[in-house]
Amino acid sequence: MTTSHSWRDAYSGMSSDNIKGLVLALSSSLFIGSSFIIKKKGLKKAGVSGIRAGSGGYSYLYEPLWWVGMITMVVGEVANFAAYAFAPAILVTPLGALSIIISAVLAHIILREKLHIFGVLGCALCVVGSTTIVLHAPQERAIESVAEVWVLATEPAFVLYGVLVLVTVFILVVHYIPLYGQTHVMCYIGVCSLVGSLSVMSVKGLGIALKVTFSGTNQLVYPQTWAFTFFVLLCVITQMNYLNKALDTFNTAVVSPIYYVMFTSLTILASVIMFKDWDGQDPTQIITELCGFVTILSGTFLLHKTKDMVDGSVRLLKHMDEEDGTSHEGIPLRRHDSSNMRSP
Fold first, then answer.
1. In this structure, what are the phi and psi dihedrals at residue 317, rounded to the nearest 5 degrees?
2. What is the pLDDT of residues 287-298, one digit of tens each?
3. Smallest Cα–Cα separation from 98: which of 38, 185, 42, 34?
4. If DSSP codes are grouped into helix, strand and coil, which group holds residue 165?
5. Measured distance CA(241)–CA(319) in Å, rounded
6. Its domain of life (predicted)?
7. What is the CB neighbour count within 10 angstroms for residue 337?
8. 248-265 burial, b for 16+ CB within 10 Å, e for fewer?
9. φ/ψ (deg, to 5) at 113
């Protein structure tokens, strides 16, 4: 009785704004998780009649189903952005992990993609680690203008981080992706996650500018607002391009968790550098967050080992050569072992 009464008291204490934020965050996870599957189906259909995205093609731009998936993702991102306007980040951010579960479940039902039991454990570790980091993350500082964000973005520490990100992305795109893009999921996801960490910082700058503008102080007259807008568009286009390549080349149930883990980790790192989040934290909080990172790395390791255990000794490519005897209409999870292939 006491437990039930306490639960009702806690629930009734949730403000209407928090409830709105919770509903928006849950809706965001549903839309984003579903968008991976819808876009995947669109990429699959586009690959039948044109060059696959994983091979450098853009035929998916003419596929209506892919656009449905893209619109679904945009709706999810808008809902996520709106959720932060009603509820604190500590309530909204952890719910983003639900998109991984939704994506994996729908991939199992619709795409017939399977996960080894250790892959399921890897996903669970990724979610637990990311949730641990978010739950112990510090509150964001109060910022009153876009100029304040620009000052933070142009401090030496964050400028150094930005330069390192851009150099790493350049090396991945120019050297590693042409050689290993079709066999190593980390190449495509690395680009998406690194660029994504910068895009979130730009989104924060733009969001603050819009929030202050709607409050009555016009921030659209400042060039910093348009600079953040430009960076947001550039980063989002880059992320979309390489995420499409990753989805078209690798198993969705592997792409989604790894992308979530890397994107979340790098975004938190960028926020710590730019907004100096750890300055006001005690060692216990920081150590707890680092333990969350270790848990995330453990989950990522299990996901990669699962890929090897499911596939035998080959990578988790979805598309098979014609001599494998598998039609491109299907959605195979792995290449056949040489012992199972037909003799020429």
1. -90, 145
2. 887 887 788 777
3. 34
4. helix
5. 19
6. Eukaryota
7. 11
8. bbbbbbbbbbbbbbbbbb
9. -90, 135
First to last CA, the chain: 72
Q: In angstroms, rounded to a whole number, what is the distance separating the alpha carbons of residues 202 and 228? A: 5
Classify 215 as helix, strand or coil: coil
| 3-class SS of residue 49 | helix
CA distance 136 to 212: 28
Cβ contacts of residue 331 below 8 Å, gap of 6+? 44, 111, 112, 113, 318
This prediction's pTM: 0.66
pLDDT, residue 89, reads 53
Q: Are 11 and 19 in contact (CB under 8 A)?
A: no
Residue 337's SS3 state is coil
Would you say the C-alpha torsion 312, 315, 318, 323 has a positive or negative sign? negative
Distance from C-alpha of 241 to C-alpha of 221, rounded to nearest angstrom: 31
Could you give the dihedral angle defined by the CA atoms of residues 268, 274, 279 and 281, in that order, rounded to the nearest 10 degrees?
-20
User: Cβ distance 41 to 328 under 8 Å?
Assistant: no
Contacts of 229 (CB under 8 A, 6+ apart): 206
